[in-house]
Amino acid sequence: MSKTSKFNAYVSAVAHWMPEKVITNRHFSDYLDTSDEWITARTGISERRFLEDEQPTSYAAVKAIEILLKKRGITPDELDLIIVATVTPDMIYPSTACVIQDKIGAKNCWGFDILAACSGFLFALNTGVQFIESGAHKKVLVVGAEKMSAVVNMQDRNTCVLFGDGAAAFLLEPTEDKTMGILDSVLHIDGSGGVHLNQKAGGSLHPASHETVDKGMHYVYQEGQAVFKAAVKGMADVSVEIMERNNLKADNVAYLVPHQANMRIIQVCAERMKIGMEKVMLNIHKYGNTTSCTIPSCVSEYYEDGKIKKGDYIVLSSFGAGWTWGSILIRWAI
Length: 334
Ligand code: UT7
Known about the structure:
This protein is α/β, with parallel strands linked by helices. The chain is built from eleven helices and 13 strands. β12 and β13 (324-331) form a beta hairpin.
């Protein structure tokens, strides 16, 4: 889809930072009725990383951002805007963008958080793109950062084995080359799915109370199969749609970067796109579902390993609580 703006936004730098503490499947099977075999076969996850108790989401985000700024060779005061996608903000408010801005000393920017769960990074990326395309900003930092270990019930085998912590970021800058950068996006929400995946307490509907804590309402609640069914359809539909409307066949696509929630969902999505699994970016096996961090951390790792080339077409696709889902097409420019 060709855009009418003078500039395209392109990804000028990427970085990720994952916590040092590795939590294997065995960690859970030692105290819960689960097994490495079940977790690996049903999800594709072998291990995940957890932040330490005293390290909030912003800790991981700042680590990733410091790496990114160094790679790009710029200082924090050159940033115009910080957008943070997270479902695990340090606090309800101020925003984690404010916390990060202060920690890195980004004196000349503004910023805000975006909440779209597992699609958060795509929603944040598409938002950042608007500020570049309009000419309003030259350097927009888009961050996906989570401390999921802070919001899952470690006694609930249905959810605790699935998630992990981590952070990753993209820097967006303008290019006049309209064949490069973020080329297209398809994003959706459908609030009727909210009943199947949510975290009920702590907001204005169910303010934190002894009762909400006793009932575990501050933890992730997920009806796995309902989410699975919706995710398979939602993610595959938008991925196929973005390819078709940009006249891309599987051969033209270098990579699919799917949200890393479940290996089986990823496989169905790749099949529908007729893309071989060798062209699917994966890190679910080592990090689990890091919510808004899965997609940027995959891209960062593959780029760092020299697996992404300038000119590659890359399709990002996600599905998450909301429902929220979507797909973004990038032509890699660095
Ligand atoms: O990132 C946001 C979007 N989230 C997703 O996309 C997640 C989508 N859903 C899924 O990935 C899968 O539904 C899960 C991985 C969460 C669950 O896999 P499933 O194949 O759908 O399993 P299930 O929920 O149907 O449960 C099958 C059985 C149940 O036992 P019974 O009722 O058959 O006796 C569960 O209690 O597996 C049991 N089970 C477990 N067993 C061992 C559930 N969790 C575990 C576990 N270890 N950790």
